Amino acid sequence: MNRPSQSKLRVLFVGSFFDTSIKPERGGQHVSCETLVNSPIRNEVDFIPFDTTNSTVPPPPLWQRFLQTPRRIGHFLRVLACKKPHVTLIYSSGGFSFFEKGVMTIASRLLGSPVILSVRAGAFQDSFRRSAGFRALAKPLLRAPSLILCQSESWARFYADESGMPRSRLEVVHNWINFDRFVPREQPGPRESAGPLRLLFVGWVNRSKGIFDLFAAVGEVAATRPVTLDIVGKGNDYE
């Protein structure tokens, strides 16, 4: 990847960059994108945001997303041709999003832009292992990026063992958190410290979001001290 030594690295960032004044609900993808582009890395990188957020929550029907894809791909190609990024960073969830981002990955490589792909959906592994059809389509798309970012060592093992990715094209980068947004509370007083540990889960109530892992952890804590768990959200495993 060649660029002038004194210029910033131009990165076309495909992710979640919608206007929160119009759509206030934000998910983990949006927070992650916002945190990265506003981090000190912006002193070295010129991000070119490209929003691919679904228009509704839950996502619109598959047929509607399929009809929207050609226009979105066309827009992506225009941005790619006009901005001429040094590298393209693509965030993807699972399912249909992954195949759409796969097309963007191939287009970027054909137009000379290296691609860093980050699949940020726990359900992706389940779909890959469960469906032979999904696996057959996903494997060649996983080989298209120049580099795949893995959120943990277990993700790196998954790509290497089950999709055949060479370890040299896998990089483990753990989720980043802006700690300045979280102000520690003062030390609890005697009455508060004697009360139950209060936990709050906000998100989709789906197995892939770790809700059952949370239940198991709460059970372990409850063996040693009182604990309450409030759940805000619904999903496929709510009942």
Describe the protein.
- It is built from 8 helices and 8 strands.
- It has helices at 28-37, 62-83, 96-110, 123-130, 132-142, 153-162, 190-194, 211-222, and strands at 9-15, 45-51, 87-92, 115-119, 147-150, 170-172, 197-202, 227-232.
- The longest helix is centred in the N-terminal third of the chain and has 22 residues, at 62-83.
- The N and C termini lie far apart (50 Å).
- 20% of the residues are buried.
Question: In terms of topology, how is this protein built?
Answer:
Blueprint: E1 9-15, H1 28-37, E2 45-51, H2 62-83, E3 87-92, H3 96-110, E4 115-119, H4 123-130, H5 132-142, E5 147-150, H6 153-162, E6 170-172, H7 190-194, E7 197-202, H8 211-222, E8 227-232
Parallel strand pairs: 1-2, 1-3, 3-4, 4-5, 5-6, 7-8
Helix pairs in contact: 2-3, 3-5, 4-5
- Please work out how many helical segments DSSP would assign: 8
Uncertain residue ranges? none
Q: What is the percent of helical residues?
A: 25-40%
Tell me the major beta sheet: 6 strands, parallel
Question: How many E strands?
Answer: 8
Q: Return Rg in Å.
A: 20 Å
Alpha carbon gap, first and last residue: 50 Å
Q: What sequence of helices (H) and strands (E) makes up the elements?
A: EHEHEHEHHEHEHEHE
Q: Note the overall shape.
A: globular
Q: Name the average pLDDT.
A: 87
Structural class from helices and strands? alpha/beta
**Spatial strand arrangement across the major sheet:** 2-1-3-4-5-6
Residues in β-strands, percent: 15-25%
